[in-house]
Amino acid sequence: MNSITRFRTFMNITCYVMLAGLLIACSNQNDTEMKFTGANNEVKLMILDPGHFHAALIQKTMYNQIDPEVYIYAPDGPDVQNYLKKIEGYNTRPENPTEWISKLYASPDFFDKMLSEKPGNVMVTSGNNGKKTEYIKKAIDAGINVFADKPMAINSEDFELLKKAFESSEEKGVLLYDIMTERHEITSILQKEFSMTPEIFGTQVTGSSDEPAVVKESVHHFFKYVSGSILKRPAWFFDVSQQGEGIVDITTHLVDLIQWACFPGQIIDYHNDINIISSKRWSTDLTPSQFNAVTRLTDYPEYLQKDVIRDSILQVYANGEINYNIKGVHAKVSVRWNFEAPEGTGDTHYSIMRGTKANLVIRQGAEQNFKPVLYIEPVKDFDTGEFESTLTNGLKTVQEKYPGIEIQETNNGWMVIIPDSYKIGHEAHFRQVTEKYLKYLIDGKLPEWEVPNMIAKYYVTTKALELALEKSQTGTNQ
Question: What pTM value is reported for the model?
């Protein structure tokens, strides 16, 4: 081999080594970019089509880990403008103003533009649910973490696509998580805590279809105030093909609470652990003036005409009920939407968990001044005197985690007295969920039960809708 040949061979080998080193360096750089450490501003948000006010509530406060520069991709129109107004309101409020910097791209190709530019590493989606599952899947496939408002699926087709999105998230090493604010409501937290205290609750009864062991009922209202102002809802919110029916929307929270409270830390396998017994759906009927009050629109859009009866009444299938069995426990969830709550009231929640020693009941009616109150009520065949002594001991266990919690005797048992410091309100729960998600990003994973339980949750809601629709078509729906 002459000197020229040896030189060429040497240069070729050198180039290969340099190229390999460069590829490894790039790979390592990409790996580093996907790892979160909790450093300031390392999380960069991309807000996708923020048509629901929950997107703005995530930004009601600042987070050290989240960069104040936020990229918004949306079609131009009132939805994104309403979102921007809320952010500006947070930025300019007198007390604790935020410092968000909004970078808006408003165009029909907003989603494709986001994927091509990809200026952030976490996509937040809270709006029109018609294409939400598709957007989630494509974002995950592009290696983007997703923090999604509920529901992530509104029908059986979406459910199948959502399962694929979770498979892709594992392959890509990104986190897909939905925003379950109700886990942070203090009465729900304490209901769960007392159910995990055997000397007070005993064990979970299995119940029956006639008397479910766990019941969660939720009442909501189209006309409401958010951050001190009347909430303006987009017209598509009343189209179930875009928003989803009530049986797959609000019930997401209720099904989640049952899994979270009754089976803490346990994996729910929807193939073997869930059996839908029955479900039904029904409509809330709105007049044109009511529709105008919440949308500011004088006419129904064309896509709502299919739901108009008697020339002017808009039927919105916002109500639903699901009776099902989960791991042998009979459960029932129901949601109802009215137009407006009585003055001085708001959305309400009722829940009962039946134990062998006591029932844990959350009520939120007139007697409770329409504020959620938790009660501990011993079962009828249980010795009240014996229960009172064990209650005192069991209460100490809960007080270790939640100092200041007390009880007060009532006609049927005891009312749990909760200090006001724990009652931070629904809007503040978005910060708590966001902080939890930020921690999961640092961990690089969700708790092992979260993904299978999210899948189980959306199976319950979408399968229940499928069954309720079948009943409607055969005329057997109630």
Answer: 0.90
